[in-house]
Amino acid sequence: MTKHDIRLIISDIDGTILDDQHQVDPQLREQIPLLKKENIPFVLASARSPLGMEPIARELGLGDNPLACYNGALVIKGDPQNYETIIEHPLDKKEIRTFLELVKTKFPSVSSNLYSGKDWIADRLDRWVQIEAEITGEQPFIQNVLLPVLDVLIPVHKLLLIDEAAVIQQLHAYLQTMDFPNTAFYLSKDNYLEVTHKEVSKEQALLEVAKHYQIPLEQVMTIGDNFNDLPMLRLAGLGVAMGNAPEAVKAEGTVVTKSNNQHGVAKAIEEYVLL
């Protein structure tokens, strides 16, 4: 066991600090005051919205630490109901209009969800939306036609497309043949397709949060369990892959900890930070 000179921790949420029952690791909750005593901020970075992250941040007692929402498309500080924006990377509305029309025409069974700031707007209340609402504790606005939302002067930070895995993977493959120069598409689960601006990644979120605290990357520990966490695992001084991560993700972490059901984040903090 080696203590590293870590001054900032950035962690994913789902599959990382939450177990398979979507519960916060109680051992991690007990460590937060110890990290505060050492003046080591613990920052959450997730595909979730501000309101989807707020209950977890509150349960952990993170105070006004920044939240990197939508994988870094929106980095905020303060009350998620009335937050201060540190930085944002909204989607290109012209490309998103084309994209939504394409999905509606060629993949009509897909559930389309639009996120702007703290608002979640879904095109229908189907079983996929209900499952997502149960996981995040949020409730969407139902707008049967999403396109008019793009005409309102609001930034769109993320789209989430949900369906059976085979349909979503077919959609993902189809998008590789299309030209969306300002838009990125990636699978966060085998049946979840996330859509953000091309500049958005957890790597960029890491850079922006580290700059906010004026902490060099070699003194940052990042923790994650999936492919969208890889950029920040690679870039940080200490990239911790969860024991429940795919083998390809584990291979690129600096170290591998226990799984999300075995207090993996708490064990990594104990072993490499609070030793």
Automatic annotation (TrEMBL):
GO terms for molecular function: magnesium ion binding; phosphatase activity. It comes from the Bacteria. It is an enzyme of class 3 (hydrolase). Keywords: Hydrolase. Pfam families: Hydrolase_3. One of its GO terms (cellular component) is cytosol. CDD domains: HAD_Pase (cd07516). Its EC number is 3.1.3.-. PANTHER family: HAD SUPERFAMILY HYDROLASE-LIKE, TYPE 3 (PTHR10000:SF8), PHOSPHOSERINE PHOSPHATASE (PTHR10000). This is Putative phosphatase. It comes from Streptococcus cristatus. The lineage of its organism: Bacteria, Bacillati, Bacillota, Bacilli, Lactobacillales.
